[in-house]
C-alpha cells in the first residue's frame, strides 16, 4: 500500500464514544451487488456541522488520468473539500464502518464533501478502478448534506429499477426530471444516503456500480463521499503495538 493511500485511511479510535443513532429506515434495493438506501443516515445538526466545517476548504474538483491529477470540467464540474475530523465527523466515520459489520481489513477513508452548483455534474465512472483480490475501494456511501436543488440525481444505469411506487420517494419515476433514464436515479435528499458495494469477494469490480452525478439544473447540491478501502492483512500500528503487548503479558 502506498504511503499516500495509507495516509488517507482512518484508523479507528478505541476510546471514541458517540451518542446512539437510529436510522429512520433502511431499504435493500439490490442484493447483487448490494445497494441499500438509508433514510436519516445523518441528523440535521450533523449535516449542518459537516457543511460548516467544509465550507472554507472547497476547491475545484480534479480527476486522475494516467497517474496525473488535472482539472476537466467536462468530466467533473464541482468543488471538493476535505472534511476536518471533529468529534461528530469521527462518529460518522464510525457509523459507516459499523453499518458494514466491522469487516476485517476494511478501513474508512478520510471524508470529502462535494459541492455542485447549476450545471455541476460528474460523468459516469467507477469507484473501484484499482480493485484486486488484496486491495481496493470495496464500498461507497453517497450522503446528501444539502439538497436545495432541481436535478442533480445520482444515476446507476445498470441497476434494475424496482417495481412499485414505494421507491418513488427516493428515486425519480415516470421521467419526472424531464427524461426517463434507464436504471435508477436517486434524488438528493438531505441527511439520506445510498450505500453500495463495489467489489466481489474475488476482487473483481461490479459493472453495475457504474454511476454519475447528473447535472444540477437549479440551486445547489452538497454531497458527502464515504469510501471504504480493503487492504488484506493490514494491521494499523496502534493495533500491532497492543497485540504485541498482550502477547508479551501472557
Automatic annotation (TrEMBL):
GO cellular component terms, semicolon-separated: endoplasmic reticulum
Residues in coiled coil: none
Superkingdom per UniProt: Eukaryota
Gene3D superfamilies linked to this entry: q2cbj1_9rhob like domain (2.60.120.620)
The name this protein goes by in its record: Prolyl 4-hydroxylase alpha subunit domain-containing protein
Phylogenetic placement of the source organism: Eukaryota, Fungi, Dikarya, Ascomycota, Pezizomycotina
GO molecular function: iron ion binding; L-ascorbic acid binding; procollagen-proline 4-dioxygenase activity
Keyword Membrane among record annotations: no
Organism, scientific name: Didymella heteroderae
Matching InterPro entries: P4HA-like, Pro_4_hyd_alph, Pro_4_hyd_alph_FE2OG_OXY
Cofactors demanded by this protein: L-ascorbate
Domain Prolyl 4-hydroxylase alpha subunit positions: 33-229
Keyword Iron applies: yes
Keywords in alphabetical order: Dioxygenase, Iron, Metal-binding, Oxidoreductase
